[in-house]
Amino acid sequence: MLFGSIEAGGTKFVCAIGDENYNIKDSIHIPTTTPEETLGKCVEYFQKFIDIKAIGIASFGPIEVRVDNPKYGYITDTPKKHWSNTNFLGTMKKYFDIPMYWTTDVNGSAYGEYITSIKNHKPIHSLVYYTIGTGVGAGIVDNGHFLGYVGHPEAGHVRLKRAKGDEDFKGVCPYHGDCLEGLASGPTFNARTGKNGKDVPLTDPSWDYVAYYVAQAVVQATLFVRPERIILGGGVVSEPFLDMVRKHFKKIFNNYLAIDDLNEYIQMPQVPHNGSATVGNFSLALKQYYKENIVKI
Ligand code: ZN
Q1: Number of domains, the chain
Q2: So what's the pLDDT on residue 296?
Q3: Which of 20, 67, 102, 185 reaches 20 to 30 Å from 284, CA-CA?
Q4: Same domain for 59 and 190?
Q5: Would residue 62 be called left, alpha or beta, if left means φ above 0 and alpha means ψ between -120 and 50 degrees?
Q6: Which residues surround ligand 1, an ion (CB under 5 A)?
Q7: Residue 9's domain spans which residues?
Q8: Mind listing the pLDDT tens digit for each residue in 16-54?
Q9: How far, in Å, is the centroid of ligand 1 from the Cα of 179?
Q10: What pLDDT, in 10s, does the model give residues 14-25?
Q11: How do residues 200-226 score in pLDDT, each as one tens digit?
């Protein structure tokens, strides 16, 4: 059986075709321009394949996730130019009358990590997946379910204690200034140093600030959710950065609860090459396919 995946990001869409074992058969990158152009190219891509059973869509947000809401399947009020009030799911449904699973980009990634852990016979029952890239967000899977009913978690916009030396930085979030996203997303490196994060040496204090803020977010996620694992993905994250986060976490958390092995608790994604969302989407598409077909019987 063939399934489709759309990982809709702020800079690019990754569309893919895979099988019921979540193996990628084909994939394409489409730049995120306008909804008409980008969604048009997604439609064209999937039209090349016959007999796709279902599609999993993991989108940047905010999105409407309540099935009984008239705006279900929409990207709602996003600061991303052209994309506010976009009927994403409805557009796809117009061309493909098949089951579709609709969720956030980070939920797609979180689910990909969850399902991969089961496939590898090392199940992680509860996890929080943070992406730290152009924006910051978190997807939360708890025993196979996503957290959130009225909406999805917006963990990128929590407030934090400011790092010493970084107090004057105003932050880049258009809504809050110095929330987590405003202080720790990729664009904060440009705002602080005038350079892209990848060109800023790890010895620069901005890396330590960002690690300190992310560590505080990990502390909050630990206290609120008590997950088995926190996964940090996205363009800002690397192994040396993770070590900085673990160091700050240890200091802030101060052994309040027993965590056996921090190296295992705070980890990079298991799925390589930023592929977590694609795996998650295939799996969610399969889930939706069974759900809708059982209902029909
Ligand atoms: Zn914010």
Answers
A1: 2
A2: 62
A3: 185
A4: no
A5: beta
A6: 157, 173, 175-176, 179
A7: 2-104+274-281
A8: 999 999 999 999 999 999 999 999 999 999 999 999 999
A9: 5
A10: 999 999 999 999
A11: 999 999 999 999 999 999 999 999 999
